[in-house]
Structure formats: structure tokens, C-alpha cells
Amino acid sequence: LARADAAPRDRPEAPPEPAGAPASGRLSTGLVLAGGGALGALQGFLSAGLIGAAAGGLLGVGAAWLYTKGHPAAAFGATAGGIIGTALGGPIGGLIGAVVGAGVGFLLGKLFGL
After folding, report:
1. Which range (24-28, 68-72, 83-87, 89-93) has the least confidence?
2. Which helix (H) or strand (E) holds 34?
3. CA dihedral 70, 97, 104, 114 (to 10 degrees)
4. Are 44 and 52 in contact (CB under 8 A)?
5. How many C-beta atoms lie closer than 10 Å to residue 34's C-beta?
6. Is 92 exposed, middle or buried (0-12, 13-18, 19+ CB in 10 A)?
7. Mean pLDDT to the nearest integer, 99-103
8. Integer Cα distance of 73 and 75 in angstroms
9. Helix-strand-coil percent breakdown of the chain, rounded to 5?
10. Where does residue 93 rank: exposed (0-12), middle (13-18), buried (19+ CB within 10 A)?
11. What is the pLDDT at residue 111?
């Protein structure tokens, strides 16, 4: 019987988690990236056909990657910027909007701790 007030060094260590295993209650990185790509491709296909599907898939994977790296504000900025840029300036506007949106989101996230 171990004492409740025993020093931590007296307790057995928990087994290490396998590399790449998601923390309990979290989705794996691969699943997040696949989901972002699939949803982006679907949205892009419904709005602009096959070229839209390719662009939407890339935008979805990019935003999901930013999110998994701990930058949710940058992920939101990239998504919002891509959508607004595409609406205002077509494919090139979408690319520019996504890059600028990710940058602004990243800076705001750092500034406000998001």
C-alpha cells in the first residue's frame, strides 16, 4: 500500500504514449488534415467545379495544418481571407486573401493570446 503523501519518485511512472498517438479526447493530425481537405474540396467543387475543388482542398489542408500547429486564429484568417478574396478577385484574389488572412490572424492571435 502506497502512502498518499509519498514523494513522486516513489510512484511508478506512466508508460510513454506511442509517437504520433493523439492525446486522449483529441483527433489525430492526419484525420484533421484529411477532414479539412475533404471539406475544402467539397465547398470548392460546389462553388467552382474541379478547379475550385483543388483550391478548396489546398486551403482546407492549409487551415487544418495551421490549426494543428496551435494557430487557430491564423487558420480562421486563412479560411476567411480565402473566401473573401475569391469572392472579390477570383482565384488569384483567393490566394492573396488566404495568405494575408493567415498573416493577420497569426499576428492577432499572438497579440491577443488566441
Report:
1. 24-28
2. helix 29-68
3. -40
4. yes
5. 15
6. exposed
7. 94
8. 5
9. 75, 0, 25
10. middle
11. 92
Amino acid at 17: E
- Binned at pLDDT 50, 70 and 90, residue 3 comes out as low
Distance CA 67, CA 16 (A): 25
Which residue type sits at 63? A
pLDDT, tens digit, 9 for 90 and up, residues 48-71: 889 888 988 999 999 999 999 999
Q: Return the C-alpha cell found at 29.
A: 493530425
Is the pLDDT score of 106 beyond 70? yes
The C-alpha cell at 88 is 472579390
Mention every residue, 6+ apart, whose C-beta is less than 8 A from residue 94.
55, 59, 82, 83, 85, 86
Neighbours of 90 (CB within 10 A): 11
Measured over the CA atoms of residue 33, residue 36, residue 42 and residue 47, the dihedral's sign is negative
- Distance from C-alpha of 14 to C-alpha of 9, rounded to nearest angstrom: 12
What phi and psi, each to the nearest 5 degrees, are found at residue 76? -65, -45
